[in-house]
Amino acid sequence: SLLNLLVWDWLICLIILFSISSPIIICADINECKLRREDPAKYSELYPCYGGSKCHDTEGDYRCKCRLGRRGDGKIDNGCQPIIPPPVIGILVIAGVVLFGLVLVCLRKKWKLKGCYDRNGGQMLEKTSVKIFTKQELDKITNNKSNKIGKGAFGVVYKGTHDDQPVAVKYSIEKSISRTRGKDEFVKEITVQLQVSHDNLVCLIGCCLEVEVPMLVFEFVPNGSLESVLHGAERCALPLLKRLDIAIGSAKALTYMHSHSRRCIFHGDIKPANILLDDNLMPKVSDFGSSESVLKTKHRSVCADMGYIDPVYMVTGNFRLKSDVYSFGIVVLELITRKKAVYDGKSLPIEFTNCYEDDNARRNMYDQDILSAEALQPHCMECLDRMAGIAVQCLEYNIDKRPTMAEALQELIQLRAKVAGK
């Protein structure tokens, strides 16, 4: 027999010839990858697989497959190149981190809004008829707070537009109020405002609960507050009869609240700043969000201007409906004297009641603008004296001697009818 060994690049063939007419060919596959692993020094150059690739044996050959993230031919030096260039990867990583951060910020903001909504009684108020605005909606309504129309101790008021109608949006700034009163009390206050409806009460439209202290949306009353008209930037000539009408309208609002069919409600913070005036100078009592229904407990706290608060309440801590009567008496005094509750370091109610019995001293405290403009009219001095008398009754220290708001209103209406007849 004839044995002839032939070595090729991809196989070894052993040809054994048993006869000239019938040769037998035997072929064996070479595992190049195994040879590279067993003897790298000898076979790495013979069967090259460069960095970034991995050797894979195939029938009669081998492949250098590029690793994940690369492509090309690993048999060639630098043949495996990144699918995405490193600078692009860096940009994508940075973008991913930024995007992840933004998602976290958005989620945190959403959780915070949801937390404020629940804490302020959102789920409870959903069952009422109040319109609940999102913070984004209020920003749009107020044009990002572009038109500030007022500021008080507990909040800032901005003018806005909702459904093509002007509205006033109150942004509270005293966070401690929200923390101390709790959602049940806030829900009760909103419910109280929804239950009342009167021409001389500012109408609540809705609220926003996605903030620490809820924001309230009211109807817009164009002529500002009585405080501003009497003492502030909007100060203007105010005829005596118009002042009497303002007193009557304010008394109507308080009488309605005190005798509300479903529950008695006190205001708790009657003062000129909380009496708004419309185009016709008709008064609308506002800011009775701190009102509470007089039902179960006798002792309750109120947030009010110290110049207008009932001294009996200061002593006893017991706020009654006639505590509103006391504050209303000071408002009437401001209408006829055009002096603030505290002026030149003096207390208006104390100064006026001290001189009330002296006609000359009392009349010297009246607004001189009225006396100079209307002194010749027969009703002028009588009207001022009667209004002064009603105010002094309201300021009685003995609560039992004070009139009710209904009684004070009736006296004012009778006075108006008498003056109109002259």
UniProtKB/TrEMBL annotation:
PROSITE patterns given in the database record: ASX_HYDROXYL, EGF_3, PROTEIN_KINASE_ATP, PROTEIN_KINASE_DOM, PROTEIN_KINASE_ST
BP terms from Gene Ontology: cell surface receptor signaling pathway
SMART domains referenced in this protein's UniProt entry, alphabetically: EGF_CA, S_TKc
InterPro entries cross-referenced by the UniProt entry: EGF (IPR000742), EGF-like_Ca-bd_dom (IPR001881), EGF-type_Asp/Asn_hydroxyl_site (IPR000152), Kinase-like_dom_sf (IPR011009), Prot_kinase_dom (IPR000719), Protein_kinase_ATP_BS (IPR017441), Ser/Thr_kinase_AS (IPR008271), WAK-like (IPR045274)
Domain Protein kinase: 143-413
Binding site for ATP: 170
Keywords from the UniProt entry: ATP-binding, Disulfide bond, EGF-like domain, Kinase, Membrane, Nucleotide-binding, Serine/threonine-protein kinase, Transferase, Transmembrane, Transmembrane helix
Residue spans crossing the bilayer: 7-26, 88-107
Residues covered by the EGF-like domain: 29-81
A GO molecular-function annotation: ATP binding
Similarity annotation: Belongs to the protein kinase superfamily.
Entry protein name: Os11g0695850 protein
